[in-house]
């Protein structure tokens, strides 16, 4: 299986990622200070000040794409 085929298959998941309720942790987005109530992962308590909301993360990824690895 070629890498591009694997990448395409991973992007076309037929199921959504489970979201974890983190509303009790009072996390705020580092860019816009919007409260974050759900995350697709369990956050590291030492790095709570580095989290971004979904909208700010989308903007960040558009402005800072990951380098391609071959």
Structure explained in plain terms:
The protein is α+β, with helices and mostly antiparallel strands. The chain has a domain at 17-63. Helices cover 27% and strands 11% of the residues. It contains two helices and four strands, in the order αββββα. The protein has helices at 3-11, 54-63, and strands at 20-21, 27-28, 35-36, 38-39. The strands form two sheets. Strands 1-4 form a two-stranded antiparallel sheet. Strands 2-3 form a two-stranded antiparallel ribbon. Strand 2 (27-28) and strand 3 form a beta hairpin. The longest helix has 10 residues, at 54-63. It starts with a helix and ends in a 7-residue tail after the last helix. The model has no long low-confidence stretch (mean pLDDT 86).
Structural features:
70 residues; alpha+beta; two-stranded antiparallel ribbon; 4 strands; 27% helix
Q: What order do the helices and strands come in, and which of them pair?
A:
Layout: H1 3-11, E1 20-21, E2 27-28, E3 35-36, E4 38-39, H2 54-63
Antiparallel strand pairs: 1-4, 2-3
Our Rg estimate from Cα atoms comes to 15 Å
Question: N- to C-terminal separation?
Answer: 15 Å
Average pLDDT for all residues:
86
Which overall shape is indicated by the principal axes computed on the Cα atoms? Answer: globular
| Number of continuous helical runs | 2
Q: Spans with pLDDT under 50 lasting ≥5 residues?
A: none
Structural class: alpha+beta
Largest sheet: 2 strands, antiparallel
Proportion of strand residues: 5-15%
Helix content: 25-40%
What's the count of strands?
A: 4
Run of helices and strands: HEEEEH
> Strands of the largest sheet, in order across it?
1-4
């Amino acid at each position: 299986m070629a890498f591009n085929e694997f990448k395409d298959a991973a992007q076309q998941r037929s199921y959504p990622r489970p979201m974890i309720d983190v509303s009790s942790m009072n996390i705020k987005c580092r860019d816009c200070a919007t409260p974050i109530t759900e995350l697709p992962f369990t956050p590291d308590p030492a790095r709570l000040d580095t989290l971004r909301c979904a909208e700010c993360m989308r903007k960040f990824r558009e402005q800072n794409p990951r380098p391609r690895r071959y």
